[in-house]
């Protein structure tokens, strides 16, 4: 409800709260009005009229990654690192802010007994691949928008 609250004035916000509280007799708790919203694994913020996104993690998230001595194919670790890094870079509006969460992923894997000699090359490759994928994705979206605007004209 935080995000919605930032878009309406105080009178409308109070009216909205009263209306929701009447719905099926369920009690509702409302957070204070804010320009930020935590939704699933992303925090969406309105800053200087722009939407920005960052990774949201609950304080008590356990991050129970598989230890290396489990009987899983070697590609499981590669997929975990590649997917984790891509997910982080996709969720951050500013790539520079993603360094902390990528480092946290690395630390968490170390704490599950994975070895730096195995992890560092994977993280390097994951970051390189994710940046290339995202650059290509943006380029394809721009080309698609240009093509669609030419069809309209």
Which geometry do the CA atoms define?
extended
What is the number of beta strands?
3
Mean pLDDT: 86
Describe the largest sheet: 3 strands, antiparallel
Count of DSSP H/I helices: 5
Structural class: mainly alpha
Helix content: 40-55%
**Order of helix and strand elements from N to C terminus:** HHEEEHHH
Q: What percentage of amino acids are in beta strands?
A: 5-15%
Which stretches are low in confidence, meaning pLDDT under 50 for 5 or more residues running? none
Radius of gyration: 21 Å
How far is the N terminus from the C terminus?
A: 40 Å
Strand order of the largest sheet: 1-2-3
Kindly report the oligomeric state of this protein.
Answer: single chain
Describe this structure in words.
- The chain is mainly α and 153 residues long.
- Helices cover 55% and strands 10% of the residues.
- The protein contains five helices and three strands; from the N terminus they run H-H-E-E-E-H-H-H.
- Strands 1-2-3 form a three-stranded antiparallel beta sheet, with no helix packed on it.
- Helix 3 runs antiparallel to helix 4 (99-111) and helix 3 (75-91) crosses helix 5 (116-152).
- The chain starts with a helix and ends with a helix.
- The mean pLDDT is 86.
